[in-house]
Amino acid sequence: MKTKLDILKQYGLSVTDSRKKILELFLNADGALAHADIEKNAAKNFDRVTVYRTLQTFVEKGIVHQIPTTDNSILYALCKQNCQQGHHHDDHVHFICSNCDKTICLDDVTIPQVKLPINFTKQQAAMVVTGVCEDCK
Amino acid sequence: MKTKLDILKQYGLSVTDSRKKILELFLNADGALAHADIEKNAAKNFDRVTVYRTLQTFVEKGIVHQIPTTDNSILYALCKQNCQQGHHHDDHVHFICSNCDKTICLDDVTIPQVKLPINFTKQQAAMVVTGVCEDCK
DNA sequence: GTAACTGCAAAATATTTGCATCCTT
DNA sequence: AAGGATGCAAATATTTTGCAGTTAC
User: Fold this and answer.
1) Interface of chain B toward chain A, CB-CB under 8 angstroms
2) pLDDT in tens, A58-82
3) Spatial distance between the Cα atoms of B111 and A105, rounded to a whole number of angstroms
């Protein structure tokens, strides 16, 4: 299993306290995190601005990806499987529980192909399913 | 074809200048609109706050729906087909052109079913495809 | 006439930027 | 030591709220 240090080094980032801490939050989280979640858990120790910059860096490097939601918030999630090495493939479905509000990466559920209208070219696809998760069932 | 007035009345909203104007923007738009787009085009005449409130009303009534995007902006789009009458079914795929940044409702492309892990219940699904649209091809 | 809608002002919140200092390598 | 990362302060931008005046029905 990869450690925080491995991941940071692998992406050519210097190892700092805030990056370690934030990465740890992701590794321990069972779902995706909103900026606010991270701030709540890390901002005791770090500046709000550092959270912004760290997340931005992680996204740029491909360590985390952003999940679009309808409710104006961006969620950030670590790809648990393929994405940590080499190129970033965010091809799984995200699930948002309407009860506990947790966002879960369904790493095993692949986004199905869709047939686009003629003259449309696909580069990426994202899919978010809302419903009730296994814990809230 | 439904007129602005028809639509507003159908949803039990009183007909005001700002609602007519904003609805017109949607009817003329070939894609989805960001809050900023609406503000740019309508805010000459209306207060910024009115745009917020009007959009909120439209979403509540089901006249427009929100499209999740990764880049922190909410997009609003009119459902061209089924959604205008009765209940709102936002079951089509959204397409974001990486060239012109336009967001298009692919009303004819239905979101495919996915098989969720056991004990997960689906309520809604959203799908966003990024790529190159027909105009930018 | 009444309820609903709008504009204005202002508060609350969120995000970005510059710069001096500190830390990693 | 050098480059990058952080913290602080402050500028910007975004969204929400209260209230008085106006408008639709």
Assistant:
1) 66-72, 74, 93, 95, 98, 106, 108-109, 111-134, 137
2) 999 988 888 877 666 788 888 664 4
3) 18
The model's pLDDT over A33-48, given as tens digits with 9 standing for 90+, comes to 888 889 888 767 899 9
Q: What are the residues of chain A with a beta carbon less than 8 Å away from any beta carbon of chain B?
A: 66-72, 74, 93, 95, 98, 106, 108-109, 111-134, 137
Query: Rounded to an integer, what distance in angstroms lies between the CA atom of residue A24 and that of residue A64?
Result: 12
Six-digit token string for A136: 């809230």
Contact B70, A69 (CB under 8 A): no
Q: Is the C-beta of residue B121 closer than 7 Å to nucleic acid chain C?
A: no
**Domain contains B73:** yes
Distance of residue B71 Cα from the nearest chain A Cα, in angstroms: 8
Within-domain flag for A136: no
Q: Please indicate, yes or no, if residue A137 is contained in any of the structural domains.
A: no
Q: How long is the CA A45 to C1' D5 vector, in angstroms?
A: 15
Treating both helix axes as pointing N-terminal to C-terminal, what angle do B17-28 and B35-42 enclose, rounded to 10 degrees? 120
Residue nearest to nucleotide D16 (CA to C1'): B49
Residue with tokens 């104006």: A72
Asked if residue B19 keeps its beta carbon closer than 7 A to nucleic acid strand C, the reply is yes
Structure tokens at B103: 């967001």
Integer distance in angstroms from the first to the last C-alpha of chain B?
31
Residue type at A42 in one-letter notation: A
Domain that holds residue A87: 4-131
Which residue from A62, A89, A119, A124 is spatially nearest to B98, judged by alpha carbons? A124
Query: Domain count of chain B?
Result: 1
